[in-house]
Design a protein that fits this description.
Length: 498
C-alpha cells in the first residue's frame, strides 16, 4: 500500500489543483460569462466527444492492464505493444468518424426540438473525441509503467489553465462564442501532445510497426479479450454521457447545463478515490500474473475502506452545508441540489466497492462482465427514458444512482462467489453508523443559526466531532489514521525547524 499511498497522494494533490482551476472555470467563469444554455451546449459536446473516444478505443484500456505485464520488456521495446494498440485505436477513430459524418442527419434529428443550437456546432465533437481517444491510450500505457503524474498534470491542470485563458478572452469580448467553442474543442490536443513528448523523453514512444513482435496466437487472445472488454469500457462513460445526451433531448440545453455543472461539482468528491484507483488498478494485473491472491484481497479491502471514509466524509461535509454551498451560484441551479444527492449515493457505492471492476475485468472470467455492463447501459437508458419526462434532471440522477448500485452489487457478488474476494471489514459498518448519526445531527440542526457563515462552521465542526474524531481515536480505518499521523508529524517537523 506504500506505493499506492505515495502516488495516490501526488496525483490527488495535482488533481485538486486541477479541481480548483476547474471550479474557477465551471463554478465561476462559466456562470458569469456564459448562459445556462451555452454551458449545456459545451457539456453536450464534451459528453459526445468522450463517448466517441471510448467507442474508438476498442477496449484497449483493459487490454493494456491485463496483457502489458506479460509483454513488458525494455530491451525488446515491450514487443511493440504501443504501436499495436495505437493501430487499433487509429482504426476505431477512422471508423467512428466516418459513421458520425454519415449519420449526421439522424443524430441531429434528436436535438432539433429541444437543443437546436447543437446543430451549428456538430463537427466540433471530432477534435475532442480524436484527441481524447489517443490520450486514453497513452495515459493507460504510462499507468502500466507506473508513471501516473504527467498524465494527471496534463489533463487536470494544463488543459484547465488553457480553458481559463480562452474564458478570459471571451469575458473581454476578444473572441466570439463561436470561436470560443472551436478553441475549446482544439484544447484537447494539448494533453495528448504533452504525453507524446514525455514518452519520447523517457524513450518509450516507439511507433515503428516493425517493432510489433507479438505472437499471432497471443494477438488472437488479445482481440478475443478486447471484444468483451470493449463493452465493459463503455459502461462507465455511457452512464455519465447518456444523462447529458438524454437531458438535452428531453429537457433542453439549459437543463443539461445545470445537470453537468452539478455533476462536475460532485466529481470533486471522487478525486482521491480516482487517484487511488489509478495507482492500484495496474497492481491488480500483476497480482493475477503471479497468482498473489492474498495481496489482492488485502489491496481490495484497504482500497475499499479508505475510499469509504473519503467518500462518506466529503459527502457529509457537503450535504450538511448544501444550502450554504449553493448560495454562491445562480438561483436556477438550486434545482441541482437533489441531483447532487442522488448522484453521490450511486458514486458512494461505486467508491465503497473499490477495485472490484479491475479485479473482475482482468480475471479469467472477464467474459461474464459483459452481462453486467450491458445491463447497466440498458438500465440507465430505460430509467432515463421513464424518469426524465417525470422529474427532469433529478430523474436522470435517480436513474443513474439506481443503475450504479445494482451494477456494483452484481459485480461484487460475482467476484465474491467466483474468487472468494470481498472488501468488507467489520469496522466499515461502524464507520457507516457514525455517518448516519452525523447526517441526522446535521439535519436536525439546520437553520439553527441565522448567520450562514457561523452555521457553516457549526455544521462542519459537528460533522468532524461526530464522524472524524471517533474514526481517528478508535483507529477504525488504520490506513487513513496512519496517513493523518504522518501528515501531522510532517507539519510538526516543519514548525520545529523554523
Amino acid at each position: 500500500m506504500g506505493l499506492v499511498q505515495k502516488d495516490a497522494f501526488r496525483t490527488t494533490v495535482i488533481s485538486y489543483v486541477g479541481i480548483l482551476i476547474g471550479y474557477l472555470n465551471k463554478g465561476v467563469l462559466f456562470l458569469i460569462i456564459l448562459s445556462t444554455a451555452q454551458i449545456g451546449l459545451i457539456n453536450l459536446i464534451i459528453s459526445i466527444g468522450t463517448l466517441f473516444a471510448q467507442l474508438a478505443n476498442f477496449g484497449t484500456v483493459y487490454v493494456t492492464w491485463k496483457f502489458f505485464p506479460f509483454l513488458k520488456n525494455e530491451e525488446k521495446r515491450h514487443h511493440g505493444f504501443l504501436p499495436f494498440v495505437l493501430l487499433i485505436v487509429g482504426t476505431g477513430i477512422v471508423l467512428y468518424s466516418g459513421l458520425y459524418i454519415l449519420f449526421r442527419d439522424q443524430i441531429q434529428q434528436g436535438y432539433i426540438e429541444k437543443s437546436p443550437m447543437f446543430l451549428d456546432y456538430y463537427y466540433w465533437i471530432l477534435p475532442i473525441g480524436i484527441s481524447y481517444a489517443f490520450f486514453i491510450v497513452l495515459e493507460t500505457y504510462l499507468r502500466s509503467l507506473y508513471k501516473n503524474i504527467i498524465a494527471v498534470f496534463a489533463y487536470e491542470v494544463v488543459l484547465r489553465l488553457a480553458l481559463t485563458v480562452i474564458l478570459v478572452l471571451k469575458w473581454l469580448d476578444l473572441i466570439s462564442f463561436e470561436l470560443f467553442v472551436g478553441l475549446h474543442s482544439l484544447l484537447y490536443i494539448i494533453p495528448t501532445m504533452i504525453l507524446v513528448f514525455y514518452l519520447g523523453r523517457i524513450n518509450e514512444f516507439h511507433l515503428r510497426v516493425s517493432t510489433i513482435q507479438i505472437p499471432k496466437r497471443f494477438k488472437k487472445i488479445i482481440f478475443y479479450f478486447s471484444s468483451f472488454s470493449y463493452i465493459n469500457t463503455l459502461g462507465g462513460v455511457w452512464v455519465s454521457s447518456l444523462d447529458v445526451l438524454m437531458i438535452a433531448q428531453f429537457v433542453g440545453l439549459k437543463g443539461a447545463g445545470i445537470f453537468a455543472t452539478v455533476v462536475f461539482l460532485a466529481g470533486v468528491l471522487q478525486v482521491p478515490f480516482k487517484s487511488i484507483l489509478r495507482v492500484s488498478a495496474p497492481m491488480v494485473s500483476d497480482y493475477w500474473k503471479h497468482r498473489e491472491m492474498d495481496k489482492m484481497k488485502e489491496l481490495y479491502t484497504k482500497v475499499s475502506s479508505v475510499s469509504l471514509v473519503i467518500g462518506l466524509s466529503m459527502f457529509l461535509l457537503c450535504w450538511v452545508n448544501i444550502d450554504f454551498l449553493f448560495s454562491f451560484i445562480k438561483s436556477e441551479f438550486r434545482e441541482g441540489i437533489w441531483v447532487f444527492f442522488f448522484i453521490m449515493i450511486g458514486r458512494l457505492v461505486d467508491m465503497y466497492f473499490g477495485i472490484n471492476g479491475s479485479i473482475f475485468s482482468t480475471s479469467k472470467k472477464y467474459r461474464y462482465d459483459i452481462f453486467f455492463t450491458v445491463s447497466l447501459i440498458i438500465g440507465v437508458y430505460l430509467l432515463n427514458y421513464w424518469l426524465i419526462p417525470i422529474w427532469g434532471i433529478v430523474g436522470a440522477a435517480i436513474s443513474t444512482s439506481i443503475a450504479l448500485i445494482v451494477y456494483n452489487v452484481g459485480r461484487l457478488l460475482f467476484v465474491w462467489i467466483a474468487y472468494k474476494l470481498h472488501p468488507f471489514h467489520r469496522n466499515q459498518f461502524v464507520i457507516i453508523g457514525l455517518f448516519v448519526i452525523a447526517m441526522m445531527a446535521g439535519h436536525f440542526t439546520q437553520g439553527l443559526i441565522n448567520n450562514k457563515w457561523i452555521q457553516f462552521l457549526f455544521e462542519s465542526t459537528l460533522a468532524i466531532v461526530l464522524f472524524f474524531v471517533p474514526i481517528y481515536l478508535l483507529s477504525l480505518e488504520k490506513e487513513t489514521v496512519n496517513y493523518i499521523k504522518k501528515g501531522m508529524a510532517f507539519v510538526r517537523s516543519k514548525f520545529r525547524r523554523n
